[in-house]
Amino acid sequence: MKICVVGAGYVGLTSASVLADLGHTVSCVDTNIEKIRSLNRGEVPIYEPGLKEIISRNEENLTFSSEVIENIRNHPVILIAVGTPSLADGKTNLTYIYSVVDMIADALTDYKTIITKSTVPPGTNEKIYAKLLQKGVAPEQFAVVSNPEFLREGSALYDMLHADKIVVGMNKNDSKSLNIVKSLYKGIEAPYIVTTLSGAEMIKYTSNAFLATKISFINEIARICDKYEVNIDDVVRGISTDPRISPHFLNSGLGFGGSCFPKDVRSLEQSAIEKNITPIILQAIQSTNHSQIDYYIEKLITVFESLKGKTITVLGIAFKPNTDDTRESQAVYLIKKLSQLGCTINTYDPKATLPFLGESNIIQFPTLDQAVTDAECVIIATEWAEFLYLDWKKLKQLMKGNVILDARNCIDPLKAHEHGFQYVGVARS
Ligand SMILES: NC(=O)c1ccc[n+]([C@@H]2O[C@H](COP(=O)([O-])OP(=O)(O)OC[C@H]3O[C@@H](n4cnc5c(N)ncnc54)[C@H](O)[C@@H]3O)[C@@H](O)[C@H]2O)c1
Ligand SMILES: O=c1ccn([C@@H]2O[C@H](COP(=O)(O)OP(=O)(O)O[C@H]3O[C@H](CO)[C@@H](O)[C@H](O)[C@H]3O)[C@@H](O)[C@H]2O)c(=O)[nH]1
Fold first, then answer.
1. Of 214, 293, 295, 299, which is most buried with the most CB atoms under 10 A?
2. What is the number of other CB atoms lying within 10 angstroms of the CB of residue 173?
3. The domain that contains 322 carries what CATH number?
């Protein structure tokens, strides 16, 4: 099958390379000429485990181009994977989606199956369909399919290849599109969930909102446990054998970040408000998440009284391990907050770079050892593998102080105590 993937971001690049690996001929296009140039030089603009390797082994049937309209014209299947960021009011910015729809309308000379992979609010695929009709495209010339993506950054390829479901939203009786989607993913064993266009959109938002709910819920429980001196690990162990609860997504810590949960919860909140529904739970999830950083700062203040003038090392900049993505990273928000409180912040991340420049009290170091030297306190803000088993003896020699704030519940407090550190955590000691 000949497929044009529009957008060379996390989802576009992962989809394009997996589809090429499944034997399709794929052209991945992006309006960002620099991104396409670097891909054509063999450089992958994002860090995602295995992505560089899968792209290079599919050289023959995976091409990259910034000629978006031309490629849309020459391919019968179009997969839209452009960004859908937040607007200032929390609604979704659909400019990129509609710019692709305009390009499709301009390029359409023969039948196209238009598949939306991007996360879009309920009703958007219906609007895409209506917009194409408005632009004079005949209904028999195209089909619109909603096929949301559920991959996680850091394990994107695995997640796509081992999907727990493939969600397909379509207009009524569109068996042609369903067959096309099935041929597209031939080789991936997963149950198909077939629904309406808006049904598929809602499945995607519900999934992210539910996962975000689990995180905020356990963070709130951890705060309560903290006050009653109960270990949060014991509580999670105690509830997670119940299959109705499951052990997943119950790791309390700094809170959720990244390019999806924050913006998607905001967007779903706005979709609800638009229909006069007050989404109390969605609002509470966000409120708990926003105050997580303050809660951790309060913990530090119980140790230091004042943070002004303290030298603090923050380990981790990315919003989670195994990615260089810093979009809405809680680690970055924490660094900014510490800076406002008058600290000197030394930081280190194996892959991510600080997304801002110019503040003389915030320095990113190329190694962990350099970053922790002379620190009065080390905070683990992202649970990268190399932070899980710290060389305690060396750390003791390099640091000026002995405080470790574990903001991801990822190290063993006993080990820290054994080596003479003061372990600080929420509902962990
Ligand atoms: N990142 C994830 O883990 C993830 C997972 C599931 C779903 N999603 C959803 O998938 C979508 C894409 O997310 P992402 O993180 O891959 O985005 P991204 O920001 O990394 O990449 C989007 C790309 O689209 C390109 N683009 C914008 N307008 C274009 C146009 N008119 N023509 C061609 N290219 C254009 C941009 O230049 C950019 O390279 C979003 O809706 C997101 O919510 C993301
Ligand atoms: O128990 C947990 C699990 C996650 N997180 C945090 O939650 C955020 C998101 O983590 P994760 O879901 O692993 O990463 P994403 O790559 O953002 O993936 C989410 O967002 C994608 C984009 O929509 C979806 O496709 C995925 O299914 C969904 O998991 C990160 O800040 C994590 O640190 C926690 O705090 N505790």
1. 293
2. 7
3. 3.40.50.720
Looking at ligand 2, which residue's alpha carbon is closest to its atom 6?
256
The total number of structural domains that make up the chain = 2
Query: Does ligand 2 come within 6 angstroms of the Cβ of 262?
Result: no
Q: Can you give the pLDDT of all 429 residues of the chain as single tens digits?
A: 999 999 999 999 999 999 999 999 999 999 999 999 999 999 999 999 999 999 999 999 999 999 999 999 999 999 999 999 999 999 999 999 999 999 999 999 999 999 999 999 999 999 999 999 999 999 999 999 999 999 999 999 999 999 999 999 999 989 999 999 999 999 999 999 999 999 999 999 999 999 999 999 999 999 999 999 999 999 999 999 999 999 999 999 999 999 999 999 999 999 999 999 999 999 999 999 999 999 999 999 999 989 999 999 999 999 999 999 999 999 999 999 999 999 999 999 999 999 987 789 999 999 999 999 999 999 999 999 999 999 999 999 999 999 999 999 999 999 999 999 999 999 999
Q: How far apart are CA 390 and CA 394, in angstroms?
A: 9
From atom 10 of ligand 1, which residue's Cα is the shortest distance away? 118
Ligand nearest to the CA of 256: 2
Reported ipTM: 0.99
Give me the phi and psi of 124, to 5 degrees please: -70, -45
Could you tell me if 182 and 247 lie in one domain?
no
C-alpha to C-alpha distance for 7 and 28, rounded to whole angstroms: 7
Q: How far is CA 157 from the centre of its chain?
A: 14
User: Does the active-site annotation cover 260?
Assistant: yes
Which residues, in sequence order, are CB contacts of 245 under 8 Å at separation 6+? 239
- The model carries a pTM of 0.97
Host H or E run for residue 2: strand 2-6
Of 207, 92, 77, 202, which Cα lies nearest the Cα of 145?
77
